[in-house]
From TrEMBL:
It comes from Leucobacter komagatae. Keywords: ATP-binding, Nucleotide-binding, Transport. Its EC number is 7.6.2.9. The keyword Ribonucleoprotein does not apply. Residues 2-237 form the ABC transporter domain. SUPFAM superfamilies: P-loop containing nucleoside triphosphate hydrolases. SMART domains: AAA. It comes from the Bacteria. GO terms for molecular function: ABC-type quaternary ammonium compound transporting activity; ATP binding; ATP hydrolysis activity. The keyword Nucleotide-binding applies. This is ABC-type quaternary amine transporter.
Length: 275
């Protein structure tokens, strides 16, 4: 469980990125922070592994205040996947994936075996492990980023727009794979995106943020779709006919063969909401 307790963040230049933010994130679920650029999503995510220190307030993981944890240990115990993979360019893919396990004290051979297994698990063949990151496609690099984060078997996985830089088809594939992995592994995932469709597809719980890290609405995708809290949320999820940034669409849900399907205004199915 991750708990944000009245955290705020004002950067050195005076930018108030997060007002006062409190939220409990349940274990073994995927929680998605979604909001437009500058709403404070990344700032909040990075408070969890202390890459950003709150100006006031605290973040707790399973009852421990993270400000009392050793930051290096903390970061090694939490998986972190970034938009631009963050892979080490001069190390092979296999070594990239094995690195954190080695740093955590796993013997090299064992770490490499784990890395190889994890590459397969994220849908990459073992022989890709011998390549260097630049010899992979963007989608493959993101899979490597996910594998690398999972090798130390962290309880928590932080994902900051991990699929933002790949084309829509690959993006959809990666989302599906992550959904599958999550069903298998049951990690506590905190995922940041500005894409509401991605948020609804991946989140058990979705937190819609306004500027300053203010929570506009928090709930399951079905709750938010069925009962948007206000005009801001209605607009953000594209459910208002006025459109704005999003293509105008009215979303509806319908139960089909025991599954809850989301449809757009033209009747096109957008996806299935997991029960
Ligand atoms: N190091 C920094 N110094 C000053 N201001 C910052 C810093 N990092 C972020 N900010 C500002 O804080 C606010 C929140 O930024 P943050 O990156 O958390 O938002 P975000 O919702 O993740 O945005 P994006 O989707 O564009 O990544 C923005 O106004 C941003 O310009």
């Amino acid at each position: 469980m991750i708990r944000f307790d009245a955290v705020t963040k004002t950067y050195a230049d005076g930018t108030r990125a997060v007002g006062e933010f409190s939220l409990t994130i349940p274990s073994h679920h995927a929680t998605v922070f979604v909001g437009s650029s500058g709403s404070g999503k990344t700032t909040l995510l990075r408070m969890v592994n202390r890459m950003v220190e709150p100006t006031s307030g605290s973040v707790w993981i399973d009852g421990q205040d993270v400000s009392t944890a050793d930051p290096v240990q903390l970061r090694r115990s939490i998986g972190y996947v970034l938009q631009q993979g963050g892979l080490l360019p001069h190390r092979t893919v296999l070594d990239n994936v094995a690195t954190v396990a080695i740093l955590n004290g796993t013997p090299k051979a064992r770490a490499r075996a784990l890395a190889s297994e994890m590459l397969e698990r994220v849908g990459l063949s073992a022989d890709l492990g011998r390549r260097f990151p630049a010899q992979l496609s963007g989608g493959q690099q993101q899979r490597v980023g996910v594998a690398r984060a999972l090798v130390p078997d962290p309880n928590i996985l932080l994902m900051d727009e991990p699929f933002g830089a790949v084309d829509p088809i690959v993006r959809r594939e990666l989302q599906n794979e992550l959904g599958r992995l999550q069903r298998e592994l049951g990690k506590t995932i905190l995922f940041v995106t500005h894409d509401i469709d991605e948020a609804f597809r991946l989140g058990d719980e979705v937190v819609v943020l306004r500027t300053g890290g203010e929570i506009a609405q928090c709930g399951t995708p079905a709750d938010i779709l069925a009962h948007p809290a206000d005009d801001f949320v209605r607009h953000f999820i594209g459910a208002d006919a006025a459109g704005g940034d999003h293509e105008a669409r009215k979303l509806t849900t319908r139960d089909v063969d025991g599954q809850r399907i989301v449809f757009d205004s033209t009747g096109r199915p957008l996806g299935v909401i997991e029960p």
